[in-house]
Amino acid sequence: MTAILDQLRAAPRSVLGRLPGVSSDDDETRRPLPVSGMLAAAATLGVGLAALTTLTLVGWIAAPRGTLEAGLPGVFRTAAQLWLAAHHAGFAIPGGRVGLLPLGLMLLPAVLLYRAARWMARDADLRLRLPARLPKNSPKAQAGARRRAQLVLVVQAGVSLAAPYALLAGLIAVVARNEITQPFLGETLFSHFVLAFLAGSLATARMIGPWRVMLRLLPERVRALTVGTAVATAVLLVAGLALVLVAIALNFGQIQELSSVLSPGFVGGVLLLLLQLLYALNAVVWALSYIAGPGFAIGADTLVAPTGVQLGTVPSLPLLGALPESGTVPAWMMAVIALPFAAGAVAGVMVARISPSPSYEAAPLWGFLSGVSTGLVAGVLAALSGGPIGGGRLATVGPSPWEVALSVALEVGVAAGISAGVTNLLLLNKRARTPLDKAAAPVRKAGAALAKAASKVGLAESDPRPLPGHWMDATEADTQEIPVIRDDWQDEHASAAAETLAQSRSRAPEPGPDARPPRKDIVDESDDRGGHVIYVDPYAWDRD
After folding, report:
1. Range of 241's domain?
2. Given 195, 234, 266, 534, which residue has the most CB atoms within 10 angstroms?
3. Signal peptide: which range, if any (predicted)?
4. How many other CB atoms are there within 10 angstroms of residue 303's CB atom?
5. Is 184 found in the same domain as 172?
6. How far apart are CA 462 and CA 465, in angstroms?
7. What are the pLDDT digits (tens) for 257-304?
């Protein structure tokens, strides 16, 4: 796909370069951002439809006659419907609607859109349009203006890709209609626009720098909430995946029995396995709902929850053989309810470490808000993972979005609030009682390292004994008393100076009436009797 887009990028510029009087400079032949977005959207739709058409053609050849629409037009129409379903756009069928769509299929357009958005950013030279880096210690107003300019460019890139992508998807929805399945045009436009906007925005922001730099585009509090929500959601999804794997391992025999009953053959078995892998992400979200408490339903008047299981007739999908049997749940399974609290505790620590609060009561509030945002994300995932399959009994399949959102928000929010408050308190106390010796620790370590190196090369002192007295470093200045000159101190140099002055007076003639008395504050530095004298000012450290 990248090679195709690069050819689209280079072809018009090479043609322009051959024309007389037209420069081939990149700045002059650079396409506008909306034009690059339109080319990227068209290429994404073309590559995605080609891949799904190939897969549908293989299934049409291996399937019994009459399963799919006759002829190649029917194959293309089915592939177009799969492409719409990959964006979670529902269909209307006689007697109901189809909303239970595989979340794993959404990865295909997401990856294609991300790569197309990266190409769009290079084609439009968005890196040159980004604000230049500011020097260190720049004013906050300039840094805020630069951040806002970057966000505006990111939003423009997302809209430039999403708008034509949604319009082209609307045309595909009109072409893919038939007498049985009719795509919802509103859901098609909305789902395609949202997915393309997210992919385009992330790809453009990725040009600014690594993911860590991308997070710095957000304010500190928003960044802390984003990281806390992502961490809590990731912990819940990992716990849901582990629960699904354990359920498959415990009920693997029943899954094999359902697969043998279907007897799909080799090609059909591969397609059936692929279908189950695409629905695996839905199962992980259902397990997340099970961990949160509300559970999920497989039809009307059914429930799979830690409090009990009540099932009826289940669709013949081998993956559903991992469901527990109807009845009470073992008591040890209730321990899974503690997992959301563990996720909240981890999220609260992250929120407090990224954005500590100077007030003790604000940190628990921000931790609870991270739990609320995690509940909203869980509710959206629950809504995407479930949906009806026609009418009647299977009109209710999957978890309840509002129940999952409320449960996750309360469980994760309470745990995150407590952990954020405790972590913030520990951080504040640690800063308040940081010992002064830590400031001198690097200097002491460096001195020890130098002494060790000198001893190895033979440069160490011959007498390793420490010098007498107390050696005071800079960190101990506040703890030591200021030296005071006492009256009983003896100044040897002053005594020698007084003796020299007396001898000179005895040899000198008597001073006249106008003679000035000698100054006692002048020291005769030429006098070296008794050795070299060093004067130490006890107040010098205060002046430094």
Report:
1. 219-434
2. 195
3. none
4. 15
5. yes
6. 9
7. 888 887 777 777 888 888 889 899 999 999 999 999 898 988 888 888
Q: Kindly report the length of the chain.
A: 544
CA 446, 447, 453, 459 torsion-angle sign: positive
Query: Does the residue 24 lie in any domain?
Result: no
| pTM exceeding 0.85 | no
Structure tokens, 287 = 């397990």
DSSP state letters, 451-495: HHHHHHHT-S-S--SPPSSPPP-GGGTTTSPPP---TT---HHHH
Looking only at the bridges linking them, the beta strands covering 397-398 and 297-298 are antiparallel
Please tell me whether residues 155 and 178 are part of one structural domain.
Answer: yes
Domain shared by 329 and 422, yes or no: yes
- Enumerate residues 6+ apart whose C-beta is below 8 A from 372: 409, 413
Task: Give first-to-last CA distance, the chain, whole Å.
Answer: 68
Biggest alpha carbon distance in the chain? 141
Supply the angle between the helices 140-175 and 71-86 in degrees, to the nearest 10.
150
Q: In 3-state terms, what secondary structure has residue 72? A: helix
> Do 281 and 420 fall within a single domain?
yes
Q: Is residue 441 part of a domain?
A: no
- Among 434, 460, 490, give the residue marking a domain's end: 434
Q: What is the dihedral of CA 174, 177, 183, 188, to 10 degrees?
A: -20
Q: Do 245 and 201 have their domain in common?
A: no
Helices in 386-523 by DSSP H: which ranges?
A: 401-432, 437-457, 492-507
Residue in the structure block whose two tokens are 């109901």: 96
Same domain as 314, residue 191: no
Which region among 51-55, 66-70, 196-200, 228-232 has the lowest average model confidence (pLDDT)? 66-70
Instruction: List, in sequence order, every residue forming a beta bridge with 310; answer none if it has no partner.
Output: 303
Determine contact, residues 41/116, Cβ cutoff 8 Å.
yes
Within a domain: 246:
yes
Number of domains, the chain: 2
